[in-house]
Amino acid sequence: MIVKVLEVIATSEISFDDAVRNAVKEVSRTIKNIDSVYVKDMKCHVKDGEISTYGCVCKVSFRVE
């Protein structure tokens, strides 16, 4: 079995959890057989003293057929 890893950056205005879900949703549009997601890094953008967006760098692992 061969597994490839794709690194993506995803964002959300709601939460880190939602950002990770957005990463999986977007990658799954073109990639099949996703096995796991490793969250490599997280950050927030701040505007006017409030968190405006949540972001994460994700490594998405998938099996190659």
Automatic annotation (TrEMBL):
Gene3D superfamilies listed in its UniProt record: Flavin-binding protein dodecin
Family annotation (Pfam families): Dodecin
InterPro entries: Dodecin, Dodecin-like, Dodecin-like_sf
PANTHER family in alphabetical order: CALCIUM DODECIN
Protein name in the entry: Dodecin domain-containing protein
Annotated organism of origin: Chryseobacterium salivictor
